[in-house]
Amino acid sequence: MIQKKALEDLAIFGGNPTFNQTLHVGRPNIGNRRKLFERMNDILDRRWLTNRGAYVQEFERRVADFLSVKHCVAMCNGTVALEIAVRALNMRGEVIVPSFTFIATAHCLQWQEITPVFCDVDPETHNIDPEKVTGLITPRTSGIIGVHLWSRPCEIESLEKIAKDYNLKLLFDASHAFGCTYNGKPVGGFGGAEVFSFHATKFLNTFEGGAVVTNDDDLAEKIRLMKNFGFSGMDNVIYLGTNGKMNEVSAAMGITSLESLDDFIKANHQNYYTCRTHLTDIPGIKMLSYDEREKNNFQYIIAEIDENKTGINRNDLMKILHAENIRARRYFYPSCHRMEPYKSYFPNVGILLPETEKLSERLLCLPTGTAIGPAEIRQICYVIQFVVKNSAEIAGRITDKMDSDFTKERVAV
Prior knowledge:
The protein is of the alpha/beta class. It has helices spanning 33-46, 54-67, 78-88, 103-110, 130-133, 156-165, 217-226, 248-259, 261-279, 307-310, 314-323, 342-345, 354-360, 374-389, 391-412; strands at residues 23-24, 71-75, 94-98, 115-119, 141-147, 169-173, 181-182, 185-186, 193-197, 210-214, 285-287, 301-305, 326-327, 363-366. The chain has 2 domains: 7-26 and 261-328 and 367-412, Aspartate Aminotransferase, domain 1 (Alpha-Beta Complex); 33-259, Aspartate Aminotransferase, domain 2, CATH 3.40.640. The protein contains 15 helices and 14 strands. Strands 2-10-9-6-5-3-4 form a 7-stranded mixed beta sheet, with helices on both faces. A 3-stranded antiparallel beta sheet has the order 11-12-14. Strands 1-13 form a two-stranded parallel sheet. Strand 7 and strand 8 form a beta hairpin. Helix 2 runs parallel beside helix 8 and helix 3 (78-88) packs across helix 4 (103-110). The longest helix has 22 residues, at 391-412. The chain is globular and about 70 Å long. It starts with 22 loop residues before the first strand and ends with a helix.
């Protein structure tokens, strides 16, 4: 372990980085390469590369069985899955959605000329706050999208009651929550439908992919039509659709990932608890916690940085970690309402989103996954401990360094 004994040892001040290779958030989990290559060779031998081949069908069956749902419709990516689910549920007008989420959750609405109405989140769960939802409902509201953030499900029962009382469609963006449970029931069977992402950064990946899962037979049939141009059999288009199909190679990767799921979760679990052990008692560092009564994939290690107690803000801490080749990420920064086109459409909506605004300035996501282990996690924690312990002097030096760099840039211009 590289010891940081003086400020000059920090890479941002000229020292050697803690890691020779960069540690990323969401570096892909691979699974059993031999089995993957066997499946890929089989795909090439079959010469059936897409159009709902054997591997896509197997992947859909396995996912549906794992989640205890009736239907899984595999897609080319999670964003298209969201767009098709929104359209299949006949959402229109306005849909209530958290701003504290990945931009795709909002874009899937705006892309279809549906207005995303941004709702604030609960400061403890970081999920959409049901108590704020009802105040945003208007005659134009057609639905609600809840996001299971950091693998922790929304307050599903509260949202289901609101949706029922106001006759609204309810969709869940479950991109973070594959393999997780709510009241002991697998995430996937709630609302009208739930959408998963199997992007390379997700703990279970298909290289690039996603899926809509549902227990609604009619909805599933509509979604299957929509993701394949509306084809019902050969040469027979009966519905408006697009190309949302998953290919065979992606499905093969998904099956391989499913077979290694326990290994992925074990690695995430070990990394999370190692990090929590070493960071919990540091002033101003609040670790995201998980409900031990539920199943979880421990996909994210989230730390909330309180500058008043750490003596250094989240952004400066991130810069220090980046210099050490620790590519921590600001999630979700900026939040959706601070990005285009929404910041132009709704320039003052931040007033209604105080918790979202606070969280976007405080949260830091740390590397985890099978690409690293407890030894690397301990080194990451050691750097953070050193920075907080010496925060007053470090913060001053970072400010001086930024002023010096800015002056040099102006002179060069």
